[in-house]
Amino acid sequence: MVEIEGSVRGKENYTPISGVQITTDKGNHTITNGLGEFKIKAAIGDMLIFESPEFETVRYRVRSNEDVDVLVEDYEAASTKKKESKNRSGIYGTTVDHKRLLDSANFYKRTNLEKSIDFIARSIAPLGSQGNKQELSASLSTLGEIYMFHKQYDLAIANFKDALSARETSKTKLLLGKAYILNGEYENAESTLTPLLDVKNMVPYQRAELYEALGDTYKGLANLKKAQEFYREGLQIAEKNQISPKVIDLNSKMADVYASQDRTIEAEGFYQNSLNLSKKVAPERSIQESEKVADFYNQKSRYDDEIQLRKKSLNELRQLPQQPAMATSGVAIPKSDTITSQRINYKIANAYIAQDKLDEAIPYLEKSIVEADEDDDLVVQKDATRKLSEVYKYKGDFSRALESYQDYVAVVDSLYIRKEQEISRAARFNREIANTQNRISSLEQERELSQSKYSLAVTEQQLYEETSKRQKWIIYSLAFGILLMAFTAFLYYRSNKQQKLANNLLALKSLRTQMNPHFIFNALNSVNNYIAKSDERSANRFLSEFSVLMRSVLENSEEDFIPLSKELELLELYVKLEHSRFLDKFDYEIEVDEKVDIEAFRIPPMLLQPYIENAIWHGLGYKEEKGFLKIGIQQLTNNLLEITIMDNGIGRKRSAELKTSNQKKQKSKGMGNIKKRIQILNDMYKNKVEVSIANLNEDQTGTKVSLKLKKD
Which of 94, 104, 349, 360 sits CB 3.0–4.6 Å from 119 for a disulfide? Predict the structure, then answer.
């Protein structure tokens, strides 16, 4: 492989031509910058393909590592005309600088979001009252690409729309369609992309991207037949024009469609095509396709084929220089979405477990744990450690199962700490994005205000010449100013409203993240009792039931609301575990009225557990004789449900008196989080949850918690 440098310019006066699509028949791709220059990696004998709406497609066979300069005939006339026109308005001199700023923004897109957006702001700032609509559209479109890269799809969509308002281009419409797809707005994607089918001057690469995007759209709309038709059209274009990356992508996506229809033979054929083609390009792409085919084998329970293919991928991955993490899409993405040796080892182990080959699975699980630890991949380390504990349990080696499970708990603890840190970083990241987007909006508003001032100046000059029209122009100008101010105020109000919603969602996620470790640490205290008594059988039984509880808690931790039936299953298992420890302290009953439709109501996860925990630990725990805990559910109206938690313990007042001075200084973290969650939920969903706590008896003994829940 050699690095080819070159340029694309007009033949008559060497005017640089930017935005030219340059690909090789082996799949490498780039575009020319603002100076018409490019760099691309290719091998001797590869074909370079130059595509642009400005000229006919050019093909060139690489014979050495010498520079390649493409000169386009008759480009000078259009370029000179444009230059003379721009010189009359006094702004053409900014064109080259504008291109350089956009090139710089793209350069820092992957590494420094703030710096990248700063270059966009600098490209917009000098446009002024008579700003070039083409340059403004290019700046906003590039900003949309930056946001799309960082998965801020709403902001990307907004900027692409603004870019199209300034100047409509097929490229920007295609980008807007892709952003809609990534954001799950498939109907909007369809309405945006379908008109592009009638555009005549699209280059083949862009046309193949259009058919691929439409295929993705109809796949999202569950119209697999139309998705298959568009993928096939795109594949024909890519094969005809030797666009290797798209040939591989579209073969793979055709296979996905057939696989979703259980048409195994066709799916395997297309997967094999994508796998064979990927071997002719970069080894990273070959590994990516191999893993995708292995996942297909797993779905079809072809575990031997899956294991063989994954072992081959593992060997190829280890032969890569420095063993880089493989991205499963075309951009840099989080570690959780990458192909790594620890993930492949974990999947191989799962395939052996599915065949009940536990002894073969253990070495791969151990390798996965070691590699994940070295790579600081806590997610894979957690899953592999838990699976290893389960394997030892199935083999009857309970001591190793317990040891692995303790390692699993430690990893979960570290993972939750990291998640809290990630949430904090995400909050800062969102604030930075909001600030930078506000800066761009301010520049755009300043540009619009500058345009307004320019219009007023022209109007004033005309008023001297045409006195009769003065009053009409003043009225129009004032009306325009009022509308502009009203529009600005509306944008500010909408921005504040969206920010408040984003902050509420972030706060809810943070509180749920805090609740999970709080609950885990409190529940693990129950295990210590059995371990201290050397009651191995009870400890094993307790750990088994506790693992089921933990799995349910972790599965629901990312949801704002879950079905009430799931919450009841979780609570019943929790109360059962606490009762097994405090057999002599209380009995319990969970009573659900037969009229209650528990599937019709949804409730925030882990909302009831802290109240039940307080009842057991602080109400019934201090009682000398055996107490009773009752959880009742009844439906008050069609849309209102009441959940009551009653205990005949010593009461809140007596419980507070028995607390130590240190306990009195510390507030309950679980109850505090519950109050905050309820407050945020009621603010977002208009008083969906209402909680009241009262003494059960007149002598202030016993406690009754009443939670009223509205149906969605």
Answer: 104
